[in-house]
Design goal:
Keywords: ATP-binding, Nucleotide-binding, Transport. This protein has helices at 42-49, 71-76, 93-101, 109-118, 132-144, 162-178, 189-195, 213-217, 259-266, 281-289; strands at 2-11, 19-27, 31-35, 57-62, 65-66, 78-81, 150-154, 181-186, 198-203, 206-212, 222-228, 241-247, 250-255, 271-277. By secondary structure, it is an alpha/beta fold. It binds adenosine-5'-diphosphate. Adenosine-5'-diphosphate binds next to helix 1.
Length: 291
């Protein structure tokens, strides 16, 4: 069953582009990445799904329920970590967590202690004394506390050091084993690659592609470096050449065509060396964002 489903969801701000015609779905139990540069529309999509802002047109469902008409019921079963967390500074962490837990039926003190301990968060401290990273941890505990069916994380790792990120990712994998679905927004490719099963790529408010991480990285695109004995005034003209950079006696190609065709094209040229590599996810993504 689809846990989240968007049908041409559109949100325009008065003077700004928000998101337009966004359609995709997230299946139960997935860790689904949402990636795009700052300003692409990730927060706008999430905030519309949670009905903090209203769609301009289109619609969406979460757990099969309408995001506008049934938002209260939806929120009961969603854990949300906003990209920026704001709290009443004067409160102690434990009081804030107990307070926010009252909105959910299944508050579990042992779970709160366990989550805080796993993230190395001292719940007896006042919010105002916490660093940015520690505030983020408060937000994470708050989002996971009531064992939500859907966990929505907007740029969750900013402020967490690498070790803490590691603990946090472990925690998310356990949440998924428990049966949760995770929607993970980020502008950092490596963490999406590490965490997610599928990813939606967005650019300037529009969906560019939805793909499994596996297909994105195992596609036919190759990085090819040709080294010649001396500088060659040469461009490889061949279908499938996505990009070509010439530097002295070296030509770098991003190539998605048939290897046989490339080899016959190179046959007879004064080639000194040939290197064929898998492109990094970064390079594949850049391909979507250039143009
Ligand atoms: P992301 O989360 O991917 O960084 P946002 O959803 O925050 O992107 O922003 C998408 C676009 O919508 C940007 O052009 C941004 O300037 C605009 N935007 C976001 N929030 C508002 C707002 N409250 N009022 C007007 N424009 C906004």
């Amino acid at each position: 069953m689809a846990i989240v489903e968007l049908y041409q969801l559109t949100k325009s701000y008065k003077n700004n582009r928000g998101i337009s015609d966004m359609s995709f779905s997230i299946e139960e139990g997935e860790i689904f990445g949402f990636i795009g540069p700052n300003g692409a529309g990730k927060s706008t999509t999430i905030r519309t799904l949670l009905n903090f802002i209203f769609p301009t047109s289109g619609s969406a469902t979460v757990f099969g329920k309408d995001i506008v008409k049934q938002s209260k019921e939806i929120r009961q079963q969603v854990g949300y970590l906003p990209s920026e967390v704001h709290y009443y500074d004067d409160m102690k962490v434990i009081d804030l967590l107990t307070y926010s837990a009252r909105f959910h039926k299944n508050f579990n003190a042992a779970r709160m202690k366990d989550l805080a301990a796993r993230l190395d968060l001292d719940v007896s401290r006042k919010i105002e004394d916490l660093s940015f990273g520690n505030r983020k941890k408060v937000g994470i505990v708050q989002a996971l506390l009531h064992e939500p069916k859907l966990i929505i994380l907007d740029e969750p790792t900013s402020g967490l050091d690498p070790l803490m990120q590691h603990h946090f990712f472990d925690l998310l994998h356990e949440e998924r084993k428990r049966g949760a679905t995770i929607f993970f927004s980020s502008h950092i490719l490596s963490e999406v690659q590490k965490m997610c099963d599928r990813v939606a790529i967005i650019k300037e408010g529009k969906l560019v592609r939805v793909e499994t991480i596996e297909n994105l990285t195992k596609n036919k695109v190759k990085n090819i470096t040709l080294t010649f004995e001396k500088a060659e005034p040469l461009y490889v003209e061949l279908e499938g050449v996505i990009k070509q950079e010439v530097n002295a006696n070296e030509i770098k190609l991003l190539y998605s065509g048939e290897i046989q065709e490339l080899l016959s094209k190179l046959n007879g040229l004064p080639l000194h060396d040939l290197l064929i590599e898998e492109p990094t996810l970064e390079e594949i993504f850049m391909h979507y964002y250039e143009s």
